[in-house]
Specification:
- The protein is of the alpha+beta class and 74 residues long.
- It is 14% helix and 22% strand.
- It has a two-stranded antiparallel ribbon with strand order 1-4. The protein has a two-stranded antiparallel ribbon with strand order 2-3.
């Protein structure tokens, strides 16, 4: 069984480069339709129940605005 994870994205730090969306193997991320305070369209989480805490999004984020948590503590 796959791990369960949780992702937290800092909306105001995200510049909308979309690298994390491409890196997510289970498609838990998408572009938000509302701008952040810097005028960018940040990434938001969707289908969080599919997150496997792989950390791919964290690894590719150039601005370190993503936190990934393993909800099972493994």
């Amino acid at each position: 069984m796959a791990k369960k994870g949780k992702i937290i994205i800092s909306r105001d730090m995200c510049k909308g480069c979309l690298l994390c969306i491409r890196a997510c193997p289970v498609k838990t991320l998408e572009v938000d339709t509302e701008m952040n305070s810097t005028g960018s369209y940040p990434v938001k989480t969707v289908n969080m129940e599919k997150c496997i805490a792989c950390g791919n999004c964290f690894e590719v984020c150039p601005d370190a605005c993503i936190e990934v948590f393993d909800m099972e503590g493994n």
